[in-house]
Amino acid sequence: MSEQPSGRHDKLTVFVVAGEESGDQIGASLMDALDRRLGGQVTFVGVGGTKMAIRGLASLFPMEELSLHGFTQIATKLPNLIKRIRQTAAAAVRTNPSVMVLVDAPGFNLRVGKAVRKRDPGIPIVDYVSPTVWAWAPWRARRMAAYIDIVLAILPFEPDAHRRLGGPRCEYVGHPLTEATDRLRPAAGERTTITAAAPPVLLLLPGSRRSEVDRLLVPFGRTLALVAQRIGPLDVVLPAPDHLAQTIRARTAEWPVQPRIVIGQETKLAAFRSAHAALAASGTVSVELALAGVPMVIAYKLDPIVRLLKPFFLAESIVLSNLILGERVSPEYLDGEAKPQRLADALAPLFQDTPQRAAQLTAFARLDRVMEISGGSPSQRAADLVVACARATAPG
User: How far is C-alpha 64 from the chain's CA centre?
Assistant: First the structure.
């Protein structure tokens, strides 16, 4: 796959933009699917990370410049972000691609899409991973309709949300995690029954960002101590991101219940397959746990500035798996509610054959149907819609 653009009039040219690690993985899977779908007759240009680079993308600049979290970090980097928005939009117009695909990172990507549509209305624009218009700032949906041709949603309730809010056309393609169910779910013998577990395996997941770990690690450690007092020994496994492993190891060194800190994707997946319960930060990990059949308790503590905006939050839950299932299946605790005693009260019953544990497992069994896991992978469905969008606006 060449990285040189060939324009809208030759083989398909896809200008794809990802802004963080998760988007890089989604973008790479889409590139693979498009390459298969088109028999190699596709060129990729744009912005991405290491996974997209392996598939032939020469990024306009390091994707890591866009991976910013929290108001303070974004504010300090704002001049460079504005520069990169302008650079990316100009490159897209200059490339004249068959289609532009914006992968997640709405704070950056939607501004790029808006600028491209203004300068060249003929370039079809696909947004892959909907912004959370159903939870925050619903007016974004109607604004997106002016410059986004189609949204590829990864959550099954998002097409209805866009229709209700006057957003662009939105199609559910499936969550990328559903492509990894065979690696998340245990084979025979990988997870003992809860009554035979000695000691039971607890997954501890305080988040993948330093700010999340800073806010949750201490209350999580105190929760472990309370649970161990009630039920006895625990085998606690803490999958840590590479960049936080040393910090987490130092901060847990004096805990009365010592976690096994593991690093790397394969060891993390192995931990999911063996776990009996989990205490986790709110995020995509709740979907991973639900697909793996691991009952969970979820907690989160907001950034102080974000907390001021909490009254405007529209979603009925902070847990993605609960939103997908349409009910509060897994207990969730936000900010002041996330106290060790309350977390321990919710977590302890999950280590026995209790109604609380059974209710979560019964609900998780519905996920394959709710998320439409059978019938083609999300990346294949996404590739079909990207090609259709490109060809619908092709000259002639």
Answer: 17
